[in-house]
Amino acid sequence: MEPKRKVIAADCKRVTVLKYFLEALCGQEEPLLAFKGGKYVSVAPVPDAMGKEMGSQEGKQLEDQKEDDVRIEAFEDDSETEGSGGEMDIKELRAKKQALARKVAEQQRRQDKIQAVLKDQSQMRQMELEIRPVFLVPDTNGFIDHLSSLITLLDCRKFILVVPLIVINELDGLAKGPEMEHRAAGYARQVQERARKSIEFLEERFESRDNCLRALTSRGNELESISFRSEDTTGQQGNNDDLILSCCLHYCNDKAKDFMPSNKDDPIRLLREVVLLTDDRNLRVKALTRNVPVRDIPTFLKWAQEG
Predict the structure, then answer these.
(1) Which InterPro entries does the entry mention (predicted)?
(2) Is residue 54 predicted with pLDDT exceeding 80?
């Protein structure tokens, strides 16, 4: 007899937990279970009726889910109820409900922000860039990782390779490497060797007066030689990426009379003859915000060879 009473008590506990769960989920004040004919039966309204009576989000969710009514197994009326774990279970369910509500609210705020941005963009005047590549401005990593591709672009004689002076200074620093060169190993040694090759290539081409190669200071001054290439950047705002970008902006002389259309509804068209060559994500973002065309070197080289 004792094992049977334990089974009945366990069933009673499950029924109690289900009752608390349904009350928390549906928000019903009326009891969901009734004792009829010696057994507990469900008196919860079906999902369709509940959605109409409540008119709330919970009713709609139940209507969409189209779940079957909860079926409760009958047990004898002399069973012993054990509801000791019910309070803890209901607290846990309420905590989960609040967490889900916060998550839904956060998603809604995110959607509202996206819609606000899209609305602002739709009201802004559209802008188009017409790109006719003439000047190519590579960053430091371009010489470290793609020196052969830069040489190919220079030798095709279709473009002018503009090297910011800050890039040459960075290559000098990388070529010198650590004070104890014999300790340099692995990737650091590889970068040092590539920087040396890049400096040797630039010095050789500048010495031969290559008319498709230029050096440019951050203030927009062109240099015919890089024999004296130290640059005072004190007072300049931003980091080295900003100095490289300023060299690109030197070739973006926008005048309102040149690009403003006569019809106010037509998009603004800007002409760009400069392309920034870099793999750096942060520098690419900065360039795009300033309406400077940017590509990675392998992609631009493929386009130049096909064109």
Answers:
(1) Est1/Ebs1-like, PIN-like_dom_sf, PIN_dom
(2) no
Average pLDDT on 62-72 reads: 45
**For the chain, what is the radius of gyration of the CA atoms?**
36
Pairing status of strand 160-164 against strand 213-216: parallel
The dihedral built from the CA positions of residue 59, 65, 68 and 71, taken in this order, carries a sign that is negative
pLDDT tens string 232-255: 666 677 788 999 999 999 998 776
110 Cα distance to chain centroid:
14
Cα 132 to Cα 211: distance, rounded to the nearest angstrom = 19
Burial string for 93-124 (b: 16+ CB within 10 Å, else e) reads beeeeeeeeeeeeeeeeeeeeeeeeeeeeeee
Give per-residue burial for 268-306: e unless 16+ CB within 10 Å, then b: eebebebbbbbebeebbebbeeeebbbbbbeebbeebee
**3-class DSSP state of 56:** coil
- Asked whether residue 155 carries a pLDDT value surpassing 90, the answer given is yes
CATH code assigned to 129-306: 3.40.50.1010
pTM: 0.57
